[in-house]
Amino acid sequence: MSLVEKPLAVAIAIAVLAGFAPVASAQNLDDVFRKASPTVVVVRAKGRDVGAGGITHFIETGSGVLISRDGRVMTAAHVVNGKDEITVEGIGGEIVRAKIISANMAADVSLLQLERVTRAMQVARIGNSDAVRVGEQVMVVGAPYGLAYSMSVGWISARWPPNTIFPDMPLAEFFQTTATINTGNSGGPLFNMKGEVIGIVSQNISKSGGSEGLGFVVTTKSAQGLLVPRKVFWGALQGMLLTGRLASVFNVPAPAGFLVRTVAQGSMASNMGLRGADGILTIGGKEIPVGGDIVLSVESIPVVSEDNIEQIRNRLAGLAPGAPFKMSVLRAGKVIELTGSAE
Predict the structure, then answer these.
(1) Which of 53, 108, 122, 321 is found 20 to 30 A from 35 (Cα to Cα)?
(2) Positive or negative torsion for Cα 196, 143, 112, 212
């Protein structure tokens, strides 16, 4: 090898090795975690459910992220929707009450309003989820199995457009990630290596019950686009759409309806008299709540699809506080009308 060729070969070798260097060093991960963790909160929601033995009480534990100085926290809808009482614990250990101010089960995202922001809490920076590419390194911070402020690191393995991956959540765009996600991570933030929030953890697909590298995260673009303050009515409800054969079994006098499972105490839906289920039947191997109201329409908008439910959210959000609205429900075989007031 000539004297000219030798420096050239060394330069090429250095360039190749640099291409295989880790995306972020341990120090960089430490920096991201220290920057990100004060923005993360642990969410605990007290709720009720109906089973074969009647009504049971439980506490759902999840995670969330503070996104505004006035105390707004983004989390997963399945953690808080339909719950009677919600509290949030910040990094300093202080516990603060919270309420839902926006919710969208069709994207599994909810927005909470804290009674106050503690001194230790910090507001997260929201990143551009559209700019995220498959192969980028990411970090999840949350409370898996209640272990608060646990970090896991992985990569973006896929991006799924709305209505392509989860039929029950057709409105959300999802990232798929290899970062470990377990029970308690739901609602927690997914950070890029700048410490910016690019998604809200929804769930993982697992045959074993543990994490298997199939974690799914709602992109911040989806979450922000669907979470409009005061779109809260459906945040007080847990239930399911009855369509097709199930609508026929329940004698629904419409193409479809929303079967109410639980109604949060003290909510607008509860105050107008909407009733939840009092038992469970197994139909076709699936547990179906029975005894509760079936919502047929709200403000003359039929409850036949997630798109129509979104229209109802928008209609109610557009009402002035205190303005009346009407709901048609099927109760014990009879169609009745309930009247509520917008919040």
Answers:
(1) 108
(2) positive
Q: Is the pLDDT of residue 39 over 60?
A: yes
Examine the residue annotation and report whether 78 is marked as an active-site residue of this protein: yes
Contact 88, 114 (CB under 8 A): yes
pTM, to two decimals: 0.77
- Residue 255 DSSP code: S
Structure tokens at 149: 């402020």
* Helix (H) / strand (E) containing 176: strand 174-177
Nearest to 177 by CA among 212, 206, 144: 212
Q: Which residues of 141-151 are buried (b: 16+ CB within 10 A; e: fewer)?
A: bbbbeeebbbb
**Average pLDDT of the chain?**
85
Active site residue: 63, 102, 108, 202, which one? 108
Told to judge if 130 belongs to the known catalytic residues of this protein, a careful annotator would answer no
| Structure-token match 């004297």, residue found | 3
**Alpha carbon 115 to chain centroid distance?**
20
Binned at pLDDT 50, 70 and 90, residue 229 comes out as low
Sheet strands (E) in 116-149: 125-126, 137-142
Residues 121 and 151: beta-carbon distance below 8 Å: no
Which DSSP letter does residue 320 get? P
- What are the helix and strand counts (H, E) for the chain? 7, 21
| Catalytic residue (one of 49, 78, 297, 328) | 78
Tell me how far CA of residue 111 lies from CA of 66, 98, 234, in angstroms. 10, 10, 12
Q: Measure the CA–CA gap between 140 and 127, rounded to whole angstroms.
A: 14
Q: Which of 129, 152, 186, 270 is catalytic?
A: 186
pLDDT at 208: 53
